[in-house]
Design brief:
Blueprint: E1 22-33, E2 36-47, E3 51-56, H1 62-70, E4 77-82, E5 85-86, H2 92-100, E6 102-105, H3 117-128, H4 133-146, H5 163-174, E7 181-185, H6 193-210, E8 213-217, H7 221-227, E9 230-235, E10 238-242, H8 244-248, H9 253-260, H10 262-272
Parallel strand pairs: 3-8, 3-9, 6-7, 7-8
Antiparallel strand pairs: 1-2, 1-4, 4-5, 9-10
Helix pairs in contact: 3-4, 3-5, 4-5, 6-7, 7-10, 9-10
The structure holds adenosine-5'-triphosphate (ATP) and magnesium ion.
Length: 302
């Protein structure tokens, strides 16, 4: 059982107010396209402030899982609660209001190539708010600074940015509406190791500074070790969830090969070379998040 109290109110908390308990609750999820069943009987909980990694072989349904949680794909069965609301029961306007409280960086989430970085960030602000052009521009500039892009990137077009800068611009767009939950689908794919490491650090800092919950699909073992509190592994249409140490104790060939293969061992070794606190996140970041998984590096309820 979760040691933290259940989320008391389904309505939106005021900003800065700490949430506790799960902000995402998936139970008995079944998704399918025609005859192809992607998930069946999938259960998953993500707690407030947690950084949850999602891994699994190609085509196992990681991206579909994110889309189902966000309400872009209607499940064939099961229940999904996000921020205390049952997404299957929401009217379209209510679903949009819920989606407003989440930010998404899709796997193929290319920026609009004909729009500048600033205009890209303004897209969700135009769609979901009635803010005027001056405020929209100011918010876009703020987000550009937040993700560590230089101010002059505002007027650049995606083709004029490096791959790492484009990822940051995409992240700035995902943060435009001050989401409570951030969904990232392979955010460091295609980045060089230093660029990927810097992006990881950025996600960790933002998660802490803004109290964000992060659900992140990634193939990057370094990312999993460096910033994820727990990992969900998609296997046989369901997820196995735990810390990496817990997962490695499971009698599962795919998990063992994944974490104990040459790349897994290298990522684990590089983790051990860095000073860390017991939560498995970098100690030099001065973590202060309260969460059940912070007890002795493992969740009390796991
Ligand atoms: N809109 C759709 N219509 C039909 N089938 C789909 C749709 N979206 C995804 N699928 C199928 O669902 C399965 C899971 O796709 P998904 O994109 O979730 O895989 P993934 O785990 O994210 O893979 P990868 O690691 O390659 O990104 C695939 O077989 C895919 O072809
Ligand atoms: Mg995918």
């Amino acid at each position: 059982m979760n040691a933290a109290p259940a989320n008391p109110a389904p309505d939106q908390p005021s900003r800065g107010q700490a949430r506790s308990g799960p902000v995402i609750e998936v139970s008995g999820l079944r998704t399918q396209f025609g005859d192809q069943v992607i998930h069946d009987g999938l259960d998953l909980q993500v707690d407030a402030g947690e950084i949850m990694g999602v891994v699994g072989g190609s085509g196992t349904g990681k991206s579909v899982l994110l889309r189902a949680i966000i309400g872009l794909i209607r499940p064939a069965a099961g229940r999904i609660r996000v921020l205390g609301q049952d997404t299957g029961r929401l009217k379209p306007a209510e679903l949009r209001a819920m989606q407003r409280r989440t930010g998404v960086l899709f796997q193929d989430g290319a920026l609009f190539s004909s729009l500048s970085v600033e205009q890209n960030i303004e897209v969700p602000l135009r769609e979901h708010t009635r803010l005027g052009p001056r405020l929209r521009r100011q918010i876009a500039e703020l987000k550009i600074g937040l993700v560590g892009l230089p101010p002059d990137s505002a007027n650049k077009f995606p083709a004029q940015l490096s791959g790492g800068m484009r990822k940051r611009a995409g992240l700035a767009r995902a943060l435009a509406l001050d989401p409570e939950i951030l969904f990232l689908d392979e955010p460091t794919a295609g980045l060089d190791p230093i660029g990927a490491h810097n992006f990881d650090e950025l996600i960790l800092e933002l998660s802490q500074a803004l109290g964000l919950t992060v659900v992140m699909v990634t193939h990057d073992l370094d990312t999993l070790y460096a910033i994820c509190h727990r990992v969900s592994v998609l296997i046989d249409k369901r997820v196995k969830v735990g810390t990496i140490d817990e997962l490695m104790r499971l009698p599962d060939d795919w998990i063992r090969d994944y974490f104990r293969g040459p790349r897994g061992r290298a990522a684990s070794a590089s983790r051990k070379q860095r000073p860390r606190d017991r939560s498995g996140t970098p100690a030099d970041k001065g973590l202060s998040m309260a969460g059940p998984w912070h007890a002795g590096g493992e969740r009390k309820d796991a």
